[in-house]
Amino acid sequence: MSGSENTAQAARAAATSEDPSDLASDIQGVVDDLTRAREQIERVIYGQQLVIENALITLLAGGHAVLVGVPGLGKTLLVETLGKVMGLDEKRVQFTPDLMPADILGSEVLEEGADGARAFRFIQGPIFTQLLMADEINRASPRTQSALLQAMQEARVSIAGDYHDLPKPFHVLATQNPIEQEGTYPLPEAQLDRFLMQIDIHYPDHGAEREVILRTTGSLANSAEPVFTAEGLIAAQALVRRVPVGESVVDAILNLVRNGRPETSELESVRDYVAWGPGPRASQALMLAARARALVTGRLAPSVDDVIDLAAPVLRHRMALGFAARAEGVSIDQVIGDLTERLG
Q1: Roughly what angle, to the nearest 10 degrees, separates helices 49-60 and 280-296?
Q2: pLDDT tens-digit readout, 235-248
Q3: CATH of the domain at 307
Q4: Structural domain of residue 302, as residue ranges?
């Protein structure tokens, strides 16, 4: 990244004015940075434009995401590339059944000084990073999975009664394999709700897979260059919260979320098939994600279409189907489709 780009990001980081012209200028600067970031990621990740878009939205909104896809679709490479392009320190933890909370958070060790005095010293675990890849998170025991709960919500961990702040920004990108479920522990609903999005990764189309074959098996492979810095990303995340939102978008979010709850839904399919629906955190996630999506796609403000397009990744892990839906083969995405039809 050039010195002039660094200067521009630093200027945006210091901007606090709410003047409309200044806000528009700040937004346009971040939009330009995001366009370059997306181009760099697509130099390495082929045929997954929607996945890349949703991953950028997650980081820009200051959230976490769970990536669901079969092996070999580039989930690990995507996280590594995001870390490089966004200027974040990145670490990877392979979740296994024997992984313990201390293996993630860190632990205190007893040390003896030169004078013979003994004292405890905290040794940080891999969670002390800006971008943590929790690979196959559902393979760890519930006790170990829960070690991430406080970190994801509060950006800090408590060890032996003392709080330790995590680096800023802090993001968790977890992966899951939807095929092999033997020896796995499904994530509890409370933890799933802390993920801004569930990003489903599908097989690439014919043209994209051809490009993967040709570009990744030769002697030269494309690499991505940094576009953001950690400070620049923090400034962009603050800017997202200043993006103006129209009443129609707010109403669409409320309509969508409240109709996803069987107790308050006007839809027969929701009342018949949904066991429990999304809570207020889903509304917050949709609001932040819609603002972030506007910037990622080069616009100054979100629209109802953003809410519709984000409904599935934001809601699918925050709703559960009942027995009737499973018996009749109804999927959660079908129910979400019924919800978004009312907004079109």
Answers
A1: 110
A2: 999 999 999 999 99
A3: 1.10.8.80
A4: 244-344
